[in-house]
Amino acid sequence: MDGIERDLEGEAQVLRLSVTNNVGGQLATRYGVRAVPTLVLLDGNGNVVLRQAGSPRREEILTAVERLTG
């Protein structure tokens, strides 16, 4: 995820949350996280545009962000 986070610098905000703390747990419930790690990509309105469980798939993430930031 570190490399993807560097690639997205200035394009998207990356937040890393732990499902074991209060805020992370609440968001995991809200977004239906069932596995760790899970990546949830949201648009500017908070709508889920991409969800990935397991190892992040770099190209899919970068393409989805590009579509949002155009």
The count of strands amounts to: 2
Shape: globular
Helical segment count = 3
Strand order of the largest sheet: 1-2
Beta-strand proportion: 15-25%
Low-confidence runs: none
Task: Please give the radius of gyration in angstroms.
Answer: 12 Å
State the end-to-end distance: 22 Å
Query: Which secondary-structure class do the elements indicate?
Result: alpha+beta
Oligomer: single chain
Can you describe this structure?
- By secondary structure, this protein is an alpha+beta fold.
- Helices cover 39% and strands 16% of the residues.
- The chain is built from 3 helices and 2 strands.
- It has helices spanning 2-7, 22-30, 58-69; strands at residues 38-42, 48-53.
- The protein has a two-stranded antiparallel sheet with strand order 1-2.
- The chain is globular.
- It starts with a helix and ends with a helix.
- The model has no long low-confidence stretch (mean pLDDT 95).
